[in-house]
Design brief:
The protein has 390 residues and is an alpha/beta fold. The chain has helices spanning 3-16, 44-63, 85-98, 110-122, 151-166, 180-195, 214-223, 234-246, 262-268, 288-301, 307-323, 332-343; strands spanning 29-37, 72-80, 103-105, 127-129, 144-146, 171-176, 200-206, 227-231, 253-255, 276-279, 347-350, 353-359, 370-372, 377-381, 386-388. The chain has twelve helices and 15 strands. The strands form three sheets. The chain has a seven-stranded mixed β-sheet, with helices on both faces. α8 (234-246) links the parallel β8 (227-231) and β9 (253-255). α2 runs parallel beside α11, α3 runs parallel beside α4 (110-122) and α5 (151-166) crosses α6 (180-195). The two termini are 28 Å apart.
């Protein structure tokens, strides 16, 4: 093992074992990093895990005395954006103009990112998404980064694996048509199914906040597909799954990473078995970095981590690694740009595996940001949890 991955993993191993880590050096400076996350409201199931992942990673970096972040102490300034576009805008304004953070992580949902990210780009400050997978996020400007893998990268791999596993010949689709994440996921699913020559017998839509899906599911039942493709968030997906079972439907589900939440199993329980989902992270990925992360997370928060906690955890370590190559001047505008310039070259081996950035697809007449360059892991639900699909 090289020295850098060892240093990357060591603090988590020690914290996971309940041991103190002694600071190895005095901090050169306090670096304020903003986090806008949905800590209340329907999206809190993602936002709280995200906050936990950032908190754990910041504590690890600081416990190492700044050796992991160029001698700097990382201070998280956290705002609850409630999963709402207007609150995300307000949170970004406070963090950028009042708190004067060096960078902003978040927001939780792609809908909110489309509203708030342009503010960060306008003042030449990195906005780093850890849960935004919709198409077009990094097209908003050169200061937009994300380590959340695009649905366009994940869903084709997921559909191909599900089709092989279940020998699928035909499917039906249900999706949320008024949310950027679920609508973008639907667009990718539609293109993927056409490319892989899997016929779609019926397509149904619903609106955010709907809880009764019987009308849509009755139509899907009449079409008799081999599987149901669901571009949904976890709570909606869980209710859809339960209602299909109540109608006597036994088809497996295929979804995006919005399903990768303990909330799915809290609601659907074993009814969610045979749901297939692609993600860059799996609890069954037994690399040293991921094992250390899971151990430390359980010790700190008394619960199992999820994909969103893992991506937040890795994002903080990505920024810490970038700060090793930034000599902070005290001029906020210059330091924000210097951090942006250092980020794109960072490579780490974290909880989600090997990570690097890649330049986002070019958009005519626009500067673009950076997407995650990672491979998807395809999971299947068995016994009320996701396991790797073999």
């Amino acid at each position: 093992m090289s020295r850098q991955p060892f240093l990357r993993i060591l603090p988590a191993l020690l914290l996971g074992a309940g041991l103190a880590v002694t600071a190895s050096a005095a901090f050169a400076a306090d670096v304020k990093l903003g986090l806008a996350a949905a800590l209340s409201g329907p999206a809190a199931k993602y936002g709280v895990a995200i906050k936990n992942g950032f908190t754990l990673a910041a504590d690890e970096v600081n416990a190492a005395g700044g050796s992991m972040s160029g001698g700097n102490k990382l201070v998280l300034v956290i705002e609850d954006e409630q999963g709402k576009k207007e609150e995300a805008i307000n949170s970004f304004k406070k963090l950028l103009f009042q708190d004067k953070v060096l960078l902003v992580f978040g927001p939780t949902l792609s809908n909110s990112a489309f509203a708030a990210d342009p503010i960060a780009n306008a003042v030449k400050t990195v906005v780093f998404g850890t849960s935004n997978t919709a198409d077009g996020i990094t097209a908003m400007g050169p200061f937009t980064y994300r380590n959340s893998v695009m649905e366009a990268d994940v869903l084709p791999v997921t559909v191909r694996a599900a089709a092989r596993h279940f020998n699928l010949k035909k499917v039906a689709v249900i999706y949320g048509n008024d949310d950027a994440f679920t609508k973008s996921g639907y667009d990718v699913f539609k293109a993927t199914l056409a490319q892989q020559k899997i016929p779609v017998l019926d397509t149904e839509a619903y609106a955010k906040g709907d809880v009764d899906f019987k009308a849509q599911l009755t139509k899907i039942k009449a079409a008799n597909p081999d599987a149901i493709v669901c571009s949904c968030l976890a709570e909606e997906a869980a209710n859809i799954i339960l209602q299909t079972r109540a109608l006597g439907m036994k088809q497996p589900f295929i979804g995006g990473n919005g399903l990768n939440s303990p909330k799915l199993f809290e609601i659907a329980r074993n009814a969610g078995d045979d749901t297939v989902m692609g993600s860059p992270w799996s609890a069954e990925n037994l690399t040293p970095a991921n094992k250390a992360f899971i151990t430390a997370y359980k010790a700190r928060f008394g619960s199992d981590p999820d994909q969103f906690a893992a991506q937040a955890y890795d994002a903080l370590h990505v920024v810490a690694a970038a700060l090793k190559n930034v000599k902070l001047s005290g001029n906020l505008a210059n330091d924000r740009i210097a951090l942006r310039d250092a980020l794109s070259g960072v490579k780490i081996e974290g909880a989600t595996g090997k990570f690097a950035f890649r330049k986002a697809p070019a958009v005519a007449g626009k500067e673009v940001g950076y997407d995650a360059d990672q491979q998807a892991i395809v999971n299947i639900a068995k016994g009320g949890k996701f396991v790797v699909l073999k």
